[in-house]
Design brief:
Layout: H1 2-18, E1 22-31, E2 36-44, E3 57-61, H2 70-73, H3 77-86, E4 94-98, H4 115-130, E5 140-145, H5 147-158, E6 165-169, H6 176-181, H7 184-195, H8 207-211, H9 214-220, H10 223-226, E7 230-231
Parallel strand pairs: 3-4, 3-5, 5-6, 6-7
Antiparallel strand pairs: 1-2, 2-4
């Protein structure tokens, strides 16, 4: 009986171990658009190395001042994916977590950091060429927290033909009034890089900002285009971003 129990526990341990996905952190992709190597982490499902199948992809975007390791270091996204996949609650998928600095996932007004262009024209093609992805819209989703929630809306609303679903979580979205009245040091620190430093009051409401401002995109975009993507929008009622 003892030997049988030991054998069963060993088999269970091997099964659980075999079901763990692989996390590769801080890999690099060379970007001509940004003129540098951009780091990203990637989660590959447990059967990736033992199958020939192709997988759907989730792009998971970090928040302000975080990097490509945030979703696994603080959010344990890889462990959650393992657990939900084993429970049959989600399909096996690839999860891509790129570093975006403090770009807000947009092209900067001064043209020095064209992050949106990098993401759409270089990162997605690199992932599709390097890994066994299902590279059509129906199998590509995007999600993110705070600044990453803003980024997930930017990418999905401006490129609805690339994503089937988007999940902005506690997305960093502000009204025109909040932008106008934001203290100068906050504006310069948080939004100066993508939208222009030392702008005050209504000076901040530039054409570039409106091209990348979620509320304006919603206001100015045809509803049929927006409805091409399924949205799950979430924010805790105790969150200052509510």
């Amino acid at each position: 009986m003892k030997q049988l129990l030991t054998t069963m526990l060993t088999a269970l341990a091997v099964t659980v171990f075999a079901q763990q996905g692989t996390l590769k952190e801080s890999l690099q992709v060379k970007s001509a658009t940004l003129g540098k190597e951009v780091e990203y982490s990637i989660y590959l499902p447990s059967d990736y190395e033992t199958s020939n199948r192709r997988y759907p992809v989730l792009y998971l975007l970090h928040g302000y001042t975080d990097d490509e390791t945030a979703w696994t270091q603080f959010g344990e996204a890889n462990l959650i994916a393992d657990r939900l996949s084993q429970a049959g609650e989600i399909p096996s998928m690839i999860i891509v977590m790129p570093d975006a600095g403090v770009s807000w996932y947009v092209n900067s007004a001064d043209g020095k950091v064209l992050y949106e262009d990098f993401f759409i024209k270089e990162l997605i093609p690199h992932i599709d060429a390097t890994y066994r992805t299902r590279n059509s819209k129906e199998f590509r989703a995007i999600a993110g927290l705070s600044m990453g929630g803003h980024g997930s809306l930017i990418m999905a609303m401006k490129h609805p033909d690339l994503f089937t679903a988007a999940a902005p979580l506690s997305a960093g979205i502000f009204t025109e009034e909040e932008v106008i009245n934001m203290p100068d040091d906050n504006w310069n620190r948080v939004f100066g890089a993508p939208y222009g430093k030392d702008l005050k009051g209504k000076e901040r409401l530039t054409a570039h900002l409106f091209q990348n401002w979620i509320l304006k995109i919603v206001e100015n975009t045809n509803a049929d285009e927006l409805s091409k993507v399924a949205y799950y929008i979430d924010c805790g009622d105790g969150d200052f971003l509510i």
